[in-house]
Amino acid sequence: MTRLALAGETIPADAAMRILTDPNLELLPLMHAAYQVRARYFGRYVRVQILNNVQNGYCPEDCNYCAQAAGSEAKITKFHLKPDEEILVGAKKTWEAGAFRYCIVLSGRGPTENRVDHMAGLVRQIKAQWPVEVCLSAGFIDEKMAKTLKEAGLDRYNHNLNTAENHYGAICTSHGYADRLHTLENARKVGLEVCSGIIIGMGETPAEVLEVAMTLRRLQARSIPVNFYVHIEGARLGVINALTPQYCLRVLALFRLTNPDAEIRAAGGRESNLRSLETLALYPANAVFSEGYLNTGGDTTKKTVSLIEDAGFVVERIEEKDDRC
C-alpha cells in the first residue's frame, strides 16, 4: 500500500478495507506505512490551526449530530456574528501563538452576498496585518461568492462532507449531499483550496468511511479534517459507534494512504477519542487544532505544541512552508 500511495496510484478497495477491518493488520506497522507517505510530502512538520467560532447556533438545518441545529436541545451559548475587532484579534492571537492557519467558522445554511462581502473585507484586513493562512467555513456558497472570497485573499474554503452519500439521509434531511458537493466544486473552480472532511462515529460502516476518502481524492481536497464524534447532551444524535483509539488511528492511516499529498488533520474529538494514543496520530496526520472546537473544548496551544515536540515533530510556521515551496 505504501508503494502505491507514494507512486500516486489508487489503493485497491479490498486492501484499503483491511486497514479498517483486519485485526491481523497490526497497528504500529500500519502507522509506519502511513508515516512513510506523510514524510514524503510534509516531513516531520505539523501545522497547528486555531478555530474561531464567530457565529454560534440559530441554524435552520437539521443535522442531527450538531448542537447548533434546528431541533437540538443542547445547552450552548448562541450568538450572532462577533464584532469585527474580536475576529481580527483572533487572527492576531493565532499568529502570536505560532499557528499556521486561522479558521473562521459561521453557523447557518449559508451566507448572503452582503455577508460574503463583509467576510471578504475581514480577510483583506487579516492578510494585510498577519502572515497566516485563512480558511473560512460559512455553509453553502455559489461560484460568485467563492470568487469574491478568493479575490480578497482567502486561502481555503471548508465544507465538510461529514459522511458517505448513502448514509447522508440518516444524519440530515434539510439539504442533500449534492448541495455539499456543489459548494466544494464552486470553491475549486475559482482556485480556492478545498477543505473537506468526515465525522467518524455517526453510524457509518467502514465501507462508507472508505467511500468518503475516495470521494475527497476525486475532489482533490487539499485538506481533510478527520473528526471523531463527540456527543453533546441535547443534540439529537446519540452515541452510535463506540470509537476506540486504535480504530481512530486506522481511519487516519486510511485517509493518508488514499490521499497521500493532502493535509490530513486530526480534528474534533482527537483528545477524547485518541486518549493515550494521541501522539501516534502525528504519524499519519500532519495537522491538528488547538484551543478547542465549535462547542467542545480542546487542548491549549501550549499543550499541543508540547505533544508535537515531545514526539520529535516540528511545529510548522507559514514562512517555513514558503521556504520549502
The name CATH uses for the topology is: TIM Barrel
Characterize the biggest β-sheet: 10 strands, parallel
Element string (H = helix, E = strand): HHHEHEHEHEHEEHEHEHEHEH
Runs with pLDDT <50, length 5+?
none
Task: Report the structural category.
Answer: alpha/beta
**What would CATH call the homologous superfamily?**
Aldolase class I
Per DSSP E runs of 2 or more residues, the count of β-strands stands at 10
**Backbone CA Rg:** 18 Å
Taken from the alpha-carbon principal axes, the silhouette is: globular
Strand content: 5-15%
The structural domain count equals 1
What is the count of helical runs?
A: 12
What gap, in angstroms, lies between the N and C termini? 27 Å
Mean pLDDT: 95
The level-1 CATH class: Alpha Beta
Please estimate the helix content. Answer: 40-55%
Task: Based on the coordinates given, report the CATH architecture.
Answer: Alpha-Beta Barrel
Tell me what the structure shows:
The longest helix has 17 residues. Strand 3, helix 6 and strand 4 form a beta-alpha-beta unit. 41% of the residues lie in helices and 14% in strands. It is built from 12 helices and 10 strands. Strands 1, 2, 3, 4, 5, 6, 7, 8, 9 and 10 form a 10-stranded parallel sheet that branches. The protein is α/β, with parallel strands linked by helices and 325 residues long. It starts with a helix and ends with a helix. The chain has a single domain, classed as Alpha-Beta Barrel (TIM Barrel).
